[in-house]
Design brief:
Layout (H helix, E strand, L loop, with lengths): L4 E12 L2 E12 L3 E5 L6 H8 L7 E6 L2 E2 L4 H7 E4 L11 H11 L4 H14 L15 H11 L7 E5 L7 H16 L3 E6 L2 H7 L2 E6 L2 E6 L1 H8 L2 E6 L5 H12 L4 E2 L5 E5 L4 H14 L4 E7 L3 H10 L1 H6 L1
Parallel strand pairs: 3-8, 3-9, 6-7, 7-8
Antiparallel strand pairs: 1-2, 1-4, 4-5, 9-10, 11-13, 11-14, 12-13
């Protein structure tokens, strides 16, 4: 890791009509690292990538990628980056090998060099056996890998991956993760936008949590999780007891309870002494007539971090 910044954004702002997509976004990504850009739909992640990749001009603020200004030096930025968007941008009517050769020629590589680079990438990403099949016969994971390979034809020092595993099955997600790890190990700087917080937890050296067009926290995943502390999780015997259980958790911890999608689980950060809080919680649940099938302490996930950050701006500033 190095102190040199491959990506640097200061006070980025971008409007689309009356919609303020970016509201003063700041970001710093050291060269040779993976940064996860996290947030829900509409948080501003894709807009930030489009500005950094010179596909959209900021209304205010400044940004540099690979040392080049995205407004004043867009051509130099484009020569320094690779971009794989949310949907694979490959031609399904030709083979995987021909797709890579085509991208090579579009990037002004000679015919011989384009062939060589295609062969290198196919071998590196373990797609040689399928190289001469039409892309329309590829699985979703294979298409995404091919799209990733196409973005690397020119060996860019900076790679933007915009939700690369959306819609993929678990096996295909693992294949993409393996490819990203290999790129990071070779020194490529990767900015990864994702809605899957476990993805960022596995891949990223640092994460930037984006909400409403600004970065509300930025740091290594473990540091952000440490800021949340231990999480209390209560699983109820009956979904109808969710409200009193959540009220008890809020009163005892001072945190904002979050209910799980099953309607029977409530979690909240344990800010004080967790063992004492847990014992007291068990007693008070029993006194209130709330039947819990399980009460546990666990380490926080990045999902817990995001939920805590959006409910607690103090944590966002501390991180």
């Amino acid at each position: 890791m190095t102190d040199h910044l491959a990506i640097e954004a200061k006070d980025l702002r971008k409007h689309f009509g009356k919609t303020e997509a970016l509201r003063g976004l700041d970001l710093a990504v050291p060269a040779g690292t993976v940064c996860g850009l996290l947030g829900p739909n509409g948080a501003g992640k894709t807009t930030a990538v489009r500005v950094l990749a010179t596909l959209a001009a900021p209304d205010r603020g400044s940004a540099k990628v690979a040392g080049f200004d995205v407004v004043r030096e867009p051509d130099q930025v484009r020569r320094s980056i690779g971009l794989a968007g949310q949907h694979a941008a490959v031609d399904e009517g030709i083979t995987g090998r021909d797709n890579l050769r085509l991208f090579g020629r579009l990037h002004h590589l000679g015919a011989r060099r384009a062939r060589q680079r295609a062969d290198e990438l196919l071998e590196r990403f373990d797609l040689t056996e399928a190289a001469d099949r039409l892309v329309r016969t590829y699985s979703g994971g294979m298409r995404r890998r091919l799209d990733l390979m196409a973005s690397l034809v020119t060996r860019p020092p900076v790679l933007f991956l915009d939700e690369p595993t959306t819609g993929l099955d678990p096996r295909s997600r693992q294949e993409i993760w393996s490819s990203v790890r290999e790129l990071a190990a070779s020194g490529t700087t990767v900015l990864l936008t994702t809605q899957y917080l476990d993805e960022a937890d596995r891949l990223a050296d640092a994460v930037a949590v984006v909400n409403h067009g600004v970065v509300i926290a930025h740091g290594p995943p473990e540091r952000l999780k440490a800021a949340v502390g231990t999480v209390i999780e209560v699983t109820l015997a009956e979904a109808g007891q969710l409200a009193p259980a959540a009220a008890l958790l809020a009163r005892l911890t001072g945190g904002e309870p979050v209910t799980g999608p099953d309607g029977r689980t409530v979690t909240v950060p344990a800010r004080g002494g967790p063992p004492v809080e847990l014992l007291r919680l068990v007693r008070e649940l029993d006194a209130a007539g709330v039947t819990a099938s399980d009460v546990a302490l666990r380490l926080p996930s990045l999902d817990d971090v995001f939920l805590a950050l959006t409910a607690d701006t103090t944590l966002g500033r501390a991180a």
